[in-house]
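Mods, move this if it's the wrong board.
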Amino acid sequence: MQCELMLISSVGGHLTQLSQLFPLMSKYKTVLVSEKLEATEYLAKKYERVEYLVYGTRKHLFSYLFKFSLNILKSFYLYSKYRPKVILTTGTHTAVPMCYIGKLFGSKIIFIESFAKRDSANLSGKMVYPIADLFMVQWESMLKVYPKAVYKGGVY
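Not the wrong board. Structure tokens:
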């Protein structure tokens, strides 16, 4: 099943920022991807196409490496299942593999750098910036960090 848009982010503030774009889900055939936690279970009840990756944090490095590897495999599966034309993300590590997989297979990549980043890059932004078709920042000062980025204000 091909979808036009995949929205993907990790939980927390990144998902909160991505949620500002949820109205797009009524305009485009969309799949929403985030991490599986009790706090994200409501998504599957509220939206038609929701998929989950395994939650992992770098605080526990060994288990994180295992979970991240598992998420790479699941990202391949989800990409092949939905074949999105556009992947839109607010980060972080959860979305990076999907962005690279999507780029490899011809999807357009849109990355929105975190509202919390005013003068320095985060790791996922650094990793996706070189392959993004559109890289957006939410602070004008971030254009110094990402010169090819587009600034249109914040998502809030």
